[in-house]
Amino acid sequence: MDIFNTIKDMQEKTASLRKHGKVIAFVPTMGYFHEGHLNLMREGRKRADYLIASIYVNPTQFSPTEDLNKYPRDFTRDCLLAEQVGVDAIFFPDNAAMYPQGYQTYIDVENVTRNLCGASRPGHFRGVATVCAKLFHIVQPHVTIFGKKDFQQLAVIKTMIRDLNMDVELVGLATTREEDGLAMSSRNAYLNVDERKSALSLSRSLALAKHLFESGETDGDTILQQVRQHIESYPLTTIDYAQISNIDTIEETKNVDRNTFIALAVKVGTTRLIDNYVFGDALDVPRPE
User: Fold this and answer.
1) Which of 19, 30, 43, 265 qualifies as a FRET site for 188, CA 20 to 30 Å off?
2) pTM over 0.90
3) What sign results for the dihedral spanned by CA atoms 201, 239, 233, 270?
4) Spans of all domains in the chain
């Protein structure tokens, strides 16, 4: 497996691949891989001749009060896992390469970032859009694969690709979950034993929302009331948001149908977790009794 630390080396490699007609798949990550990351890479392996994953903890998507410095990192472990699922190259730049002195260009994707994490984490999606645009320009992939766990992020990248006429196909894959339903996340490593139990409040409240919808409930307020009550029945939980939105515009709505999704952000202890469910989709999570 190749490891590229400089932008120049990465660009020269992908330019050569494209010149020879090779299809490039790309999975951008912040590292500390779990099975969700690896599933994205497996999908990329199916779709391309050459598969690249990036590992870069992007500082511009963290606020000064967030967990940039303690974000989990293990480059050696990540490389071993990536190689096992068929990754051909890791792009591993540093901050000086990505944001050199004097850097001043950022991308704002406006409407789809107005609520949910865009409201509770000001500037977050500006950082996400900017780093992804830079990575797409550096790696020059034909296809890029993202998970649907952060549904708003997927909408931001989709909108940016469309609006800026980027020549890359975006693929979104279903959230990968633990056996008990918890959405896989690098931040799960922060949870202690009691917090890990309370973290199940997110996925199980989504299963409750699914059950209500499939039973004929289409009033968003009614569903959200029960979802909130369920989350708050667990210790150590603090709801940041619980909202039902349109899947394309991410605008809040009270009318639930198959064009809507419910998104959650919950602090469990000091760890902020997110999860979501698109109404009408499958969700292999046990419903609370």
Assistant:
1) 43
2) yes
3) positive
4) 2-173, 186-278
Q: Is the per-residue pLDDT at 289 higher than 80?
A: no
Q: Are 209 and 222 in contact (CB under 8 A)?
A: no
CA 231 to CA 209: how far, in whole Å?
12
pLDDT at 122: 94
Measured between alpha carbons, how far is 23 from 31 in angstroms, rounded to an integer? Answer: 23
Query: pLDDT digit string (tens) for 177-188?
Result: 999 999 999 999
Torsion on CA atoms 125, 128, 133, 137, rounded to nearest 10: 180
Q: Which of 20, 37, 124, 230 is catalytic?
A: 37
Instruction: Please indicate whether residue 37 is annotated as part of the active site.
Output: yes
| C-alpha dihedral sign at 177, 183, 185, 191 | negative
Task: Convert the chain into a string of H (helix), E (strand) and C (coil).
Answer: CEEECCHHHHHHHHHHHHHCCCCEEEEEECCCCCHHHHHHHHHHHHHCCEEEEEECCCHHHCCCCCCCCCCCCCHHHHHHHHHHCCCCEEECCCHHHHCCCCCCCCCCCCHHHCCCHHHHCCCHHHHHHHHHHHHHHHHCCCEEEEECCCHHHHHHHHHHHHHCCCCCEEEEECCCECCCCCECCHHHHHCCHHHHHHCHHHHHHHHHHHHHHHCCCCEHHHHHHHHHHHHHCCCCEEEEEEEEEECCCCCECCECCCCEEEEEEEEECCEEEEEEEECCCCCCCCCCC
Domain 186-278 belongs in CATH node 3.40.50.300: no
> What sign for the dihedral angle of Cα 224, 241, 264, 245?
positive
2-173 sits in which CATH class?
A: alpha beta
Rounded to an integer, what distance in angstroms lies between the CA atom of residue 11 and that of residue 184? 31
Alpha-carbon span 100 to 91, nearest angstrom = 17
Owner of token pair 């959230």: 175
